[in-house]
Amino acid sequence: MRIRRCAAWALVCLACAFPLTPAGHQDAVRAVAFSPTGNRLASGGADGVVKIWDPATGAEIRTLTGHSDEVLAVAFSSDGRGLASGGMEGNVKLWEASTGTEARTLSGHTGPVTAVAFSPDGSWLVSASWDGTIRLWETASGRELRTLSQHGNSVQSVAISPDGSSLASGSWDRTAKLWYAATGREWRSFAGHTGPVSAVAFSPDGRRLVTGSWDHTVRIWDTANGQELRTLSGHTDAVQAVAVSPGGEVAASGGADGVVKLWELARSRELRTLRGHRGPVNAVAFSPSGRWIATGGYDTTIKIWETATGRELRTLGP
């Protein structure tokens, strides 16, 4: 009996000395991003942490702590070595993806950072914020390069064109804008949504911009002339995330209605609806091969889906 009691106390002491990190996010998943090789997936949560996963197995690799509030955005650098995250406290953090070590904190925004993206060559990154600005930063030094402030309200989303020459942004002012990355000059504004523009994504050739809005629609625009090409309707609540497949044939959208929709861009038609999240879908991302789609939801889970069939492959999280 005495031996059993000693063994039990030993286990308690070990648990105190080495507390287990809870598996998965403990609050809503706000953002997801695949690494360039597709062998890692990053997620940001309302629980204030960034997590790194193996999307093929669903195994959690590590948890990155440092933000003092919700993590709203994550992005990998083009070489996969760097990871950026944006937080509710207004900071952008840069991490070494392989170790989870924090490299630096970029401060300057006066409101929550809603979106982050690296340039194709990884030399600079862009962040968007509720403070109504978009900021460009030098990756190596963390130096702020320029601030873009022509939106009339909070900026909800940002994307960099495939060639790195332009930025796209979406705002609560119901517009999406295109900017020259080198100068910060606005060169096009897209008006048509009747609600905040919550998501933007370029096609792989940069000739199209896909936007999602609280007006329940996804819209496709010609970046050269600003013309709206088509409106995709089907969501019954706000569209909160959009992504375009690496081949450019399919767009994915995640909605507050709890579903993910896949759209064939050439024919402007809905391909299928993915159901499985128990609440709003906050984030969508295609794997580099285009075979998988990752989604993050208010239900604290990340789901991996097969693009071709819409079949749910696995759930990451509690």
State the main characteristics.
single chain; 318 residues; mainly beta; four-stranded antiparallel beta sheet; 1 helix; disordered N terminus
Question: What would you say this structure looks like, in words?
Answer:
The structure is a single chain. The chain has 318 residues and is mostly beta strands. The protein has one helix and 28 strands. It has one helix at 2-17, and strands spanning 29-34, 41-45, 50-54, 59-64, 71-76, 82-87, 92-96, 101-106, 113-118, 124-129, 134-138, 144-148, 155-160, 166-171, 175-180, 186-191, 197-202, 208-213, 217-222, 228-233, 239-244, 250-255, 259-264, 269-275, 281-286, 292-297, 302-306, 312-316. It has a four-stranded antiparallel sheet, with no helix packed on it. Strand 1 and strand 2 (41-45) form a beta hairpin. The chain is globular, with a radius of gyration of 20 Å. The chain starts with a helix and ends with a strand.
